[in-house]
Write a structure and sequence with these properties.
Blueprint lengths: L4 E4 L6 H10 L4 E5 L23 E3 L11 H21 L3 E4 L9 H18 L5 E5 L12 H10 L6 E6 H6 L7 H14 L5 E5 L2 E2 L10 E2 L7 H9 L2 H4 L3 E3 L8 H13 L1
Parallel strand pairs: 1-2, 1-10, 2-3, 3-4, 4-5, 5-6, 6-7, 7-10
Antiparallel strand pairs: 8-9
Helix pairs in contact: 2-3, 3-4, 4-6
This protein binds zinc ion (ZN).
C-alpha cells in the first residue's frame, strides 16, 4: 500500500525551491502558509504559479479568528480567508486549512455561530473550487473545534456544504482527549467523530505525534514515534484504511537537517 505523504514546507526561499524540496522528499502532496503565519498581513504573492502537484494545500495564519468577538479581527479574518481562497483557486490548491477560531470569553455558542456566519458569508461572496478545510484543535483555552459536536454544528447548519472539508490532526485529537494508541481506541475515536460528521468531508490528516498527554489540551507537535501517541500508535493508525488512504501531512519540528526525511521514513516503515 503506498501512502500519499506530504509535509508542511516553507516558501521563504521561493516557490521553485519549495517544489525542489517536495521532489527531494518524494512527496505526493504538501502544504504551505498562505501568508505570514504570525500576522494577517499579505506577502507579495505570484498571480501565476505552476505547481506540478495534483493535490496540495494552503494553511491559514494562526491569527485568523473566525470566532473573534472583536469586530476588527473578525472582519479582517474573513477578508484574509476570501483573498486566500481566491489565490488558492488561481494556483490550483485543493483547499486551505483553517483553524475554526477562539471565542475569547464570549462563549462557545456565540463563537460557533460567528464561525458559521463567517463561512456562510465567505462562501456566498466567492465561488472557488479551492475548499475551506476546517482543522480540529487541541481545545486549549477558548479554542473551538476540538470536538466532533462543533464540526457537526457548523456543517449541519451551513447552506452550501459542498465547499467545506475537514482536516484531522493526530496531535490535536490526542491532546483533546481522543486516544489513538491502540486499535480499539482508534476505532472508538473514528467511530465517535464519524457518527457526527460524514467521512466524505475528511480530506487529509495532519500527522504529528503529541508532546502533551491524552486530554492535556497542549498543542505541541513532536516527531513521529517520539511522543505520547508513539510508534505503536502510528503503526495502529496506519492499519486503518480511513487513515492511510488520505493525504498524510507532517507538521513535525524542523531541525537543521533531515527531520522531515526521518518522519516520512518512519511512516513508510510503520505501514509495511
Ligand atoms: Zn495541524
Amino acid at each position: 500500500m503506498s501512502l500519499c505523504l506530504g509535509a508542511h514546507l516553507f516558501i521563504s526561499k521561493g516557490f521553485s525551491k519549495t517544489i525542489e524540496e517536495a521532489y527531494r522528499l518524494e512527496l505526493c502532496t504538501f502544504q504551505f502558509f498562505s501568508r505570514n503565519p504570525r500576522s494577517l498581513r499579505n506577502f507579495k504573492r505570484p498571480e501565476k504559479l505552476e505547481i506540478p502537484f495534483k493535490v496540495f494545500f494552503l494553511h491559514s495564519p494562526y491569527l485568523l479568528n473566525l470566532a473573534s468577538p472583536e469586530d476588527y479581527i473578525y472582519s479582517n479574518s474573513k477578508q484574509a480567508l476570501i483573498e486566500d481562497l481566491l489565490w488558492g483557486d488561481l494556483i490550483g490548491a485543493t483547499g486551505i486549512v483553517v483553524h475554526p477560531g477562539s471565542h475569547k470569553g464570549s462563549g462557545r455558542k456565540i463563537g460557533l455561530y460567528k464561525i458559521l456566519y463567517a463561512l456562510e458569508e465567505i462562501i456566498s461572496k466567492v465561488d472557488t473550487t479551492c475548499k475551506i478545510i476546517i482543522e480540529n484543535t487541541s481545545g486549549s483555552g477558548t479554542e473551538l473545534g476540538s470536538s466532533p459536536e462543533d464540526f457537526e454544528f457548523i456543517i449541519d447548519n451551513l447552506q452550501d456544504k459542498s465547499r467545506i472539508g475537514i482536516c484531522l490532526d493526530t496531535c490535536h485529537l490526542f491532546s483533546a482527549g481522543f486516544d489513538l494508541r491502540t486499535k480499539e481506541s482508534i476505532k472508538e475515536t473514528f467511530d465517535r467523530w464519524f457518527s457526527f460528521i460524514d467521512t466524505s468531508y475528511l480530506m487529509l490528516f495532519h500527522t504529528n505525534d503529541s508532546r502533551g498527554s491524552l486530554g492535556s489540551h497542549l498543542d505541541r507537535h513532536i516527531h513521529i514515534g517520539e511522543g505520547e501517541i508513539g510508534e505503536e500508535g502510528f503503526r495502529n493508525l496506519l492499519s486503518f484504511e480511513l487513515f492511510r488512504s488520505k493525504p498524510l501531512i507532517i507538521e513535525t519540528p524542523k531541525e537543521p537537517t533531515g527531520s522531515d526525511e526521518k518522519n516520512l521514513n518512519k511512516l513508510r516503515e510503520l505501514v509495511s
